[in-house]
Amino acid sequence: MTISYIAVGAASSHTDTITPAYPAGATAGRLAVLTVISGHPTESVPSTPSGWETAGTFSGGGGVFGAGAGPRRVTYFVRVLTGGDAQPTTRIPSGGAGSLISGRISVLDRSAGTGWRWGSAFAQDTTSGTGFSAVSSTALTWRAGDFVLLGYGLATSALGTSAEAIAATGITFGAFTERVDDGVAVGNTARFALATGSVSSGSGTQAPTVSATLSGASVGAAGVLRIREASSDVNATAQSVFPPRNLVSVTGLLTDDITSVTVYRQVDTNLTPVRAASDIDTTGAGVLLRVDAEQPFGVPLNYAAVLTDVLGNQWTVYSGPITSTVDGDVVSDAIRGIGAIVKIEAPLEWKRTREATTFNVGGRLVVVGRPRSAPSTSFTMRTESDEEGDALDTVLDDATEGVLLIRKQVSLPRLDGHFALLDDNEAPTWYDAYRWWQLDVVKTDAWADALEAAGFTLQDIAANFSTLQDIATAFPGTLLTIALYDFG
After folding, report:
1. For residue 73, which of 47, 50, 51 has the smallest C-alpha distance?
2. CA-to-CA distance for 46 and 150, rounded, in angstroms?
3. In whole angstroms, how far apart are CA 242 and each of 187, 331, 344?
4. Could you tell me the CA-to-CA distances from 393 to 16, 293, 337, 424, 436 in Å, in that order?
5. Which of 175, 400, 407, 415 has most Cβ atoms within 10 angstroms of its Cβ?
6. Would you place residue 217 in the very low, low, confident or very high pLDDT band (cuts 50, 70, 90)?
């Protein structure tokens, strides 16, 4: 896994608005980093270009903003390129005495991974001199192979930079290559420098110190953008059980320093949290597994995992499409993992009641009431074999919290859902195995999120293997291999 530097585009400088150009090699999948150096009497933050993300910003250098003196701001914007990307525009407020803004786009490529991850830290040197040294108060996570982009915003253009470097306790960095050393001759002027390098060895969470040698005395700010090939991903696998359920696995969390995960089921553009998968603390964990037994049938869907890393950055990864199919309508209990195939008759009649009282006030009728109740209805359905009838009877007997999940063979979002069972009526026939059922229900919320959907258990392992050696032989990898195995 390697991140490589491709090129940097031409500088764009102005008193308040710039539109930097992409360099050659700005192709789909690569990462574009727009580094902006700016100065303004109010130390204003440059606007985020459309379609870009702000990866970090900081103004420093001390003193009062002026010609060759005072603070300068370093800002990083990032964008994963899609091909044919429009040039970005960023601006600071116009009319500021001595204001300036300058930017360049760098492009990076990666050899592997599932995407891009980044983190930033900033620092300032307020002591004018030729030995620039800035100690950050922000600790970044480091590991071998991390790519590092250093950006410098100095208070005067009338100097040069060299020997750009970074240090962090226990981390070894390779040599850094200077990519940009520009004098920004706009407004109160600035020096814009960029350098790139990578981590050779070591790992840990450490605050960096950024340094450089200047050809003349100055103050300013420096930024560190640490970039990494992503390892985290989400995948969904249909398990061979009835009722259908999907095993959702979010992997690569430890490598990407992910401390919290929320998993959603996505149908079209609608996102629904997966049971027991909201804001899960994954600190120190490499994998999060959840069973989704409440997905709609007959329609394609995918899963989205929102990942929060140790720095508070959020990333979203998506699984590929998956469709659950069944041979009929299903009444089930996702918590216990039980269900039955039925044939639901139509139409349904929704009844809603409203507690209300009528008052005669001076000859005028005034009605005071509560909000409408949840809809209630009677489902008429049939089972067509003894096995299906017995299965439905078991679901009605053992429904967790008395709640049923009823889904059509091909999902109908306006009718599918969770229902609290009030009572039921069973009518078996004399001449075949058909049974007619009437379920009186009230539409209700799903089970409490703390209740996880049933998955394969240790008993499933015991039922398939005789000895521990049998298990070790069948699963020579890690415990994750067992967790992902389909015991259906």
Report:
1. 47
2. 19
3. 71, 11, 18
4. 72, 20, 14, 10, 12
5. 407
6. very high
Q: What is the mean pLDDT of residues 274-293?
A: 95
Task: Compute the distance between CA of residue 412 and CA of residue 449 in angstroms, rounded to an integer.
Answer: 23
pLDDT of 107-121, one tens digit each?
999 999 899 999 999
pLDDT at 455 over 70: yes
Q: What is the DSSP letter of 168?
A: B
Long-range contacts of 317-320 (CB under 8 A, 24+ apart): 317/114, 317/115, 317/230, 317/232, 317/233, 317/234, 317/250, 318/234, 318/266, 319/234, 319/235, 319/236, 319/248, 320/235, 320/236
**Residues 83-93: tens digit of each pLDDT:** 999 999 999 99
Cα separation, 169 vs 306, in Å, equals 31
Per DSSP, the residues of 355-405 read -EEEEEETTEEEEEEPPPPPPEEEEEEEE-SHHHHHHHHHHHHH-GGGEEE
pLDDT at position 471 is 83
Longest dimension (CA), the chain: 101
Q: In angstroms, rounded to a whole number, what is the distance separating the alpha carbons of residues 331 and 10?
A: 63
> Which tokens belong to 106?
């760098």
CA distance 31 to 447: 43
Question: Cα dihedral sign for 401, 402, 403, 407?
Answer: positive
**Residues in contact with 449: Cβ distance below 8 Å, sequence separation at least 6, in sequence order:** 273, 275, 276, 278
Question: Is residue 158 predicted with pLDDT exceeding 80?
Answer: yes
The dihedral built from the CA positions of residue 392, 444, 247 and 455, taken in this order, carries a sign that is negative
Cα–Cα distance for residue pair 280/277, rounded to 1 Å:
6
* Distance from the Cα of residue 426 to its chain's centroid: 47
In sequence order, the 6+-apart residues with CB closer than 8 A to the CB of 478 are none
At 420-444, the pLDDT tens digits run 999 999 999 999 999 999 999 999 9
* Residue 401 per-residue DSSP state: G
Per-residue pLDDT at 478: 79
Q: What is the pLDDT of residue 467?
A: 86
With a CB cutoff of 8 Å and minimum separation 6, the contacts of 351 are 375, 376, 377
Query: With a threshold of 0.90, does the pTM exceed it?
Result: no
Per residue, what are the HEC states of 432-461?
A: CCCEEEEEEEEECCCCCCCCCCCCCCHHHH
Residue pair 211/152 in contact (Cβ under 8 Å)? The answer is no
